[in-house]
Amino acid sequence: MAKKKIGLPPLDWLRVFEAAGRLGGFSAAAREFGLTQAAVSQRIGNLEAWLGRTLFVREARGVSLTVEGESYLPLVQDSLQALERNTEDLFGKSPRELRVAGLSSNIHALVVPSLVRFQERRPKVRVMTDSVARRSSLDEERTWLQIRYGRGAWPGRDSELIAPEVLVPMAAPGVEWGAPLIDLRGERPGWRDWARKSSQGDVTTSNISFDSMEHALSAARQGMGVALGSVALAKADLQAGRLRRLNLPELKTKDGYWLTWPEDRAKSKKQRALIADFLDALRG
């Protein structure tokens, strides 16, 4: 290996090294940059000569990082990310679009009511929503800013709580306790959990059973019985008087509604400020 040079290697060499180390090969890095594999190999060879160290082991079946390459990769990644972040902060334009994905019921109950508040703060930002049919679909959704239900712990994602999940007996005006209890299937606590924790005795649900909180609340609005409803999702109905909380104990859960995004996104100050304004509007 040639004698190392003093100073910082060319940025192009570092970017190609980072891609090859992250993706695990020269071919993948070549595809990412639109280069030939030979061009990638040449740039990494130049970098190794500059540093006076071997960064990759070349074998017939591919390449792998050396110990020194493994040590150097996170340093290069952190430096490139810091450069990108600071360049965006200094010279980047303010974000003009905010795109968020979530279950249709969560978009309807949490995002739509918050849009007026958000647009008062960010009148030039275009808001786009992407609805998914199932919660599991969010893992496959390309829209990186998402509303999720759970406990706020998703690998590789940052999360901020929008609202905790609190369940309360609620019904349409004129419907009193003693009306049929609308059954809701799923992971949320149900009527029997509520009765046990509130010491209300045995309860019997009606012949109506839903697998969606949105549908259970809709049935309650139509006077079909009492729902153990989500305060967060029923907020607009409660404020408008379409539903009312009965004078009965509430049931607090360990779950909630969260605004989440990948750890490697939202690094610039302007992007974080946009998300903070959106979060405030959601909590409003």
Account of the 3D structure:
Helix 6 runs antiparallel to helix 10. Among the domains are: 11-91, Winged helix-like DNA-binding domain superfamily/Winged helix DNA-binding domain (Arc Repressor Mutant, subunit A, Orthogonal Bundle); 165-256, D-Maltodextrin-Binding Protein, domain 2 (3-Layer(aba) Sandwich). With 284 residues, it is an alpha+beta fold. The protein is elongated. It is built from ten helices and eleven strands. It has helices spanning 11-23, 26-33, 37-51, 67-91, 104-111, 115-121, 191-198, 213-221, 235-240, 269-283; strands at 56-59, 62-65, 97-103, 126-132, 146-150, 157-171, 181-184, 205-210, 227-230, 244-245, 251-262. Helix content is 40%, strand content 25%. Helix 7 (191-198) links the parallel strand 7 and strand 8 (205-210).
Condensed summary:
Helix content is 40%, strand content 25%. It is an alpha+beta fold and 284 residues long. Among the domains are: 11-91, Orthogonal Bundle (Arc Repressor Mutant, subunit A); 165-256, D-Maltodextrin-Binding Protein, domain 2.
Supply the key terms.
single chain; 284 residues; alpha+beta; Arc Repressor Mutant, subunit A; D-Maltodextrin-Binding Protein, domain 2; 5-stranded antiparallel β-sheet; two-stranded antiparallel ribbon; 10 helices; 40% helix
SSE diagram, text form:
Layout: H1 11-23, H2 26-33, H3 37-51, E1 56-59, E2 62-65, H4 67-91, E3 97-103, H5 104-111, H6 115-121, E4 126-132, E5 146-150, E6 157-171, E7 181-184, H7 191-198, E8 205-210, H8 213-221, E9 227-230, H9 235-240, E10 244-245, E11 251-262, H10 269-283
Parallel strand pairs: 3-4, 7-8
Antiparallel strand pairs: 1-2, 5-11, 6-9, 6-10, 6-11
Helix pairs in contact: 1-2, 1-3, 1-4, 2-3, 6-10
